[in-house]
Design goal:
Elements (H helix, E strand, L loop, with lengths): L7 E5 L3 H12 L3 E5 L11 E4 L2 E4 L8 H10 L10 E3 L4 E5 L4 E4 L3 H11 L3 H24 L12 H7 L8 H6 L5 H8 L2 H4 L12 H9 L2 E3 L3 H15 L2 E3 L4 E5 L5 E5 L2 E5 L1 E4 L3 H8 L9 H6 L5 E10 L8 E5 L4 H8 L10 E4 L13 E10 L7 H19 L7 E7 L1 H8 L31 E3 L10 H19 L2
Parallel strand pairs: 1-2, 1-13, 2-9, 6-15, 13-19
Antiparallel strand pairs: 3-4, 5-8, 6-7, 10-11, 11-12, 14-17, 14-18, 15-16, 16-17
Helix pairs in contact: 1-10, 1-16, 3-4, 4-5, 4-9
């Protein structure tokens, strides 16, 4: 008999954490109903389709292919049964705002030569840096990510002491990187992935240099059809396992406890034994639960450090954009001001660092013939005022900056345009302050310092998603869903 046979579970929210939990729970025999507020599944990994263009609205980098292999492998499947992958070459292009340009490639020898061209000895330093990054990744993933350690007692064993030895666990990424590279551009190249974790070089622990192993060694990939194809693949897997998906059904209240939950929605109520919430955790606690069932008060959420929001322009453009790669970064030579304007003194950045994605470089199906699919993403502080006048002003700033620093003039070629920013994240995803990602990975918000998967106020209620362990990012949310499901099965499985 399967461990959850005869149990019913409601999964609230169809982001990667919810989709993942639903698959694991259905595989364990539960009767799983997933309730999603919006008309699409995928959470922030939704898609926008207009006039022949298809945009990934959220995640657009396919990193950590091993995590996806592991996820599908649990169910005796492989990712390629659901979508095709192509390794990008270059992985990405960087325009520095002093006129310099560099490509990072799948060819490690070429990357070492690039580093050496900026600083004598930097090629060998990159090799040493990536060796430490690889060790952090392999040990960290096996013993501290795939193995959930979200309670103090989880750290009190010999395995932790043995495997934590030698890892770069404390200190900032900035301090760690300065031990290897003096040139500020090289420091930026190995630190840009911090944006995926919602942090800055000064507030993210050095442990996360493991992201450079993800970038340089594991590679940057593109799933045919974009990240929406990955969502579709996981949804298809859930279908095969028996998950029922209900979209356009926003949850308004979660009442009761184990074996007697009532999940109220705009369309009615679902009476279930157990609940996993993948909705924004602050929203779940503050809006969906009665005060006596909350683990944290409003002050707790006010005091967290949140990952950035974003200003996004989705653009359908006539013609090609030859200056840009599939993934392009545009960086000021000193980006600390931008980070300060996110974390220290929040305001719209004067001289932004930003990201451009042109999936039509790789995928002919995301734009009409003779056109390019492009979006621009500028990380900004959550909770900023984003009225129409501000959006208009910032649109002009971004288009000017793209023209000045990449040589790509878009203005007279735009045939489709949509904007998405702080209040849109809050309205569409119920995200706290309009954060695009959740809680940042600061030293005091990592591992056991993040909210637990188990509610300690309501028996039978569990949490998945970027607020929990292991944190921010598509692969991490997949793993969070696994952890939430595993705890539920541990507590209630036969």
């Amino acid at each position: 008999m399967q461990p959850l046979s005869g149990r019913s579970v409601a999964v609230v929210g169809g982001g990667f954490g919810g989709l993942s939990s639903a698959c694991y729970l259905a595989d364990a025999g539960a009767d799983v109903t997933l309730l999603e507020k919006n008309d699409q599944l995928g959470g922030r990994a939704s898609t926008l389709e207009r006039d022949g263009f298809r945009f990934d609205m959220g995640p657009s980098w396919y990193l950590m292919p091993d995590a996806f292999e592991r996820f599908f492998g649990y169910f005796d499947r492989h990712p390629e049964e659901y979508y095709d992958l192509e390794r990008l070459d270059p992985h990405y292009r960087i325009f520095f705002k002093d006129g310099d340009r560099v490509d990072m490639l799948p060819d490690m020898d070429a990357n070492k030569q690039t580093f050496e061209s900026y600083e004598p000895g930097a090629g060998e330093a990159l090799e040493r840096y990536l060796e430490q990054s690889r060790e952090n990744y392999e040990v960290g993933m096996e013993h501290f990510v795939y193995t959930d350690r979200s309670r103090p007692r989880d750290w009190l064993d010999r395995d932790v002491l043995k495997n934590a030895r030698g890892l770069s666990l404390i200190g900032s990424m900035q301090d760690h990187v300065e031990d290897y590279f003096e040139h500020p551009k090289l420091q930026q190249i190995v630190q840009y992935t911090l944006v995926f974790l919602g942090g800055s070089p000064t507030n993210t622990p050095a442990l996360y240099n493991l992201m450079s192993h993800v970038d340089f060694n594991l590679g940057v990939w593109y799933p045919d059809g974009g990240m929406g194809a990955v969502v579709d693949g996981i949804v298809e897997l859930g279908d095969e396992l028996g998950v029922e998906y209900r979209t356009g059904e926003a949850v308004t209240e979660i009442k009761g406890r184990e074996n007697a939950f009532r999940v109220e929605t705009e369309r009615g109520a679902h009476e279930v034994d157990l609940v996993v919430s993948d909705a924004d955790m602050a929203h779940t606690e503050q809006e969906l639960l009665h005060p006596q069932n909350r683990q944290y008060d409003a002050d707790y959420w006010d005091d967290r450090t949140y990952a950035p929001s974003a200003f996004l322009l989705y653009l359908g453009v006539e013609g090609d954009v030859p200056e840009l790669a599939h993934h392009t970064l545009v960086l000021p030579t000193d980006w600390h001001q931008h980070f300060d304007q996110i974390f220290e003194a929040p305001e719209w950045p004067d001289d932004p660092a930003y990201y451009l994605c042109v999936p039509s470089k790789t995928d002919d199906d995301v734009a009409p013939e003779g056109h390019s699919n492009l979006f621009a993403l500028v990380p900004i502080a959550p909770d900023l005022d984003d009225d129409e006048a501000t959006r208009d002003r910032y649109r002009e700033l971004v288009l000017d900056d793209i023209r000045e620093n990449t040589g790509t003039d878009l203005r007279d070629r735009i045939v489709v345009e949509e904007r998405f920013t702080v209040s849109d994240f809050a309205d569409r995803y119920n995200s706290y302050g309009g954060t695009a990602l959740g809680m940042a990975h600061t030293l005091t918000q990592t591992s056991l310092f993040r909210p637990n998967h188990r509610s300690d106020a309501v028996d039978g209620l569990y949490f998945a998603g970027s607020y929990t362990n292991p944190g921010i990012g598509v692969p991490m949310c997949l793993i969070s869903g696994e952890h939430a499901a595993a705890k539920l099965i541990e507590d209630y499985g036969k």
